[in-house]
User: Which sequence fits this backbone?
């Protein structure tokens, strides 16, 4: 070592070399290696995030297939129910329909009036109509049978209130007032 | 002793000086370091390329599945609405309160000695249907109050078999000055008013109380 004699020029060269080396190392890490590692990490993260998303998409497609199998039954039920509701304003078809219903069962006079018309609380797209049905004179057994038929044959009609008064002038006759509720389309 | 003259002395000295040139040595070291760094970079690049390739594959699969899944989700939402509406319709139809069987039971319960002059009733509630019925009438018999009481008890017994929380109370029970003839026998009468309440339909399941862990979290 004692043989090496560094002149001023040599020392300058070494200092320059060291500076250059430090610059190259810093530049290498700063602009090459670290950005590459960061991109690598980001890609790993994105890949990890994609796997659950793909699983979720596949599960969604599987669920869709399962739901699609059950759909026709539910749709058929709704079609069946919709078919029970005639077109047009309910006030135009409901009272004659009820009058015909009771007439065909021996109760000639039936008057139906609309009480209220509100949106159905649990069925979106449908309305609930409240009607007052007045049967001025009915015979008890005929009325009982007609009532049972009404409840069985008109599933969209429910009876909310019943009032039966014995007619003073006719012991076998009753005056009946019913409050009916029906479901119709909006 | 022969005299040796090294005529290459200066050349050898120059060669030695050249071998020990610090700049040259530093250049060698720098080249070695650069080589190591380049190898390290290539290694990282290789890893990145592999990961990127895997990512590209998954991304392509996801890009293919995602629109289908979104469409399926929308379809599922629509179908669930259809299911929901259909189920609500079925429940609305099946959970109706049926008056005809009630009337039939009333007819069976009322004895010959009783005449119902007025009957009224109403239903309230969606899932649990609370029904109230009022019966006004005339009871005839040796003890007309007893006849009316028997009717009240029969109503509770009969409807208690089919409905829940059945109660029947007298709103009115008083003797009437009028009398009736039944089977050729004149009998005293009593005017009565009975209020019958009952519940039909299933109660909605109660909401479970919050768990301890949930309470701790919220608290």
Assistant:
């Amino acid at each position: 070592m004692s043989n090496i004699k560094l002149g001023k020029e040599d020392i300058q060269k070494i200092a320059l070399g060291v500076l250059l080396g430090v610059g190259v190392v810093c530049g290498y890490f700063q602009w090459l290696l670290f950005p590459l590692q960061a991109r690598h990490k980001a890609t790993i993260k994105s890949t990890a995030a994609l796997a659950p998303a793909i699983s979720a998409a596949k599960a969604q497609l599987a669920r869709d297939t399962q739901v699609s199998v059950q759909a026709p039954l539910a749709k058929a039920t709704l079609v069946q129910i919709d078919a029970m509701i005639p077109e047009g304003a309910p006030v135009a078809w409901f009272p004659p329909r009820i009058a015909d219903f009771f007439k065909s069962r021996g109760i000639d006079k039936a008057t139906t009036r609309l009480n209220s018309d509100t949106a159905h609380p649990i069925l979106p797209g449908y309305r609930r109509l409240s009607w007052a049905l007045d049967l001025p004179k009915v015979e008890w057994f005929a009325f009982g049978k007609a009532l049972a038929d009404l409840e069985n044959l008109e599933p969209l009609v429910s009876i909310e209130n019943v009032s039966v008064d014995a007619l003073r002038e006719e012991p076998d006759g009753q005056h009946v007032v019913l409050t009916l509720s029906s479901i119709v389309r909006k | 002793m022969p005299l040796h003259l090294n005529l290459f002395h200066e050349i050898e000295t120059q060669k030695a000086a050249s071998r020990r040139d610090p700049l040259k040595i530093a250049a060698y070291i720098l080249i070695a370091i650069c080589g190591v760094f380049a190898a390290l970079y290539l290694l990282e690049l290789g890893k990145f390329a592999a990961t990127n390739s895997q990512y590209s594959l998954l991304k392509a699969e996801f890009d293919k599945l995602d629109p289908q899944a979104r469409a399926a989700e929308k379809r599922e939402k629509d179908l669930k609405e259809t299911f929901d509406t259909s189920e609500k319709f079925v429940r609305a139809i099946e959970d109706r309160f049926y008056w005809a069987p009630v009337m039939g039971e009333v007819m069976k319960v009322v004895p010959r000695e009783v005449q119902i002059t007025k009957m009224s009733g109403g239903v309230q509630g969606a899932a649990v249907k609370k029904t109230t019925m009022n019966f006004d009438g005339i009871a005839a018999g040796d003890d007309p109050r007893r006849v009316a009481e028997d009717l009240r008890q029969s109503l509770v017994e009969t409807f208690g078999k089919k409905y829940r929380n059945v109660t029947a109370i007298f709103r009115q029970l008083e003797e009437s000055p009028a009398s009736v003839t039944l089977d050729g026998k004149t009998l005293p009468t009593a005017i009565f008013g009975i209020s019958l309440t009952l519940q039909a339909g299933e109660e909605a399941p109660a909401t479970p109380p919050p768990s301890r862990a949930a309470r701790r979290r919220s608290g």
Notes: Chain B touches chain A through 64 residues (CB under 8 Å). The longest helix of chain B spans residues 22-94. Residues 99-200 of chain B form a domain with the Alpha-Beta Plaits fold (CATH 3.30.70). Strands of chain B lie at 114-124, 129-140, 164-182, 185-200.
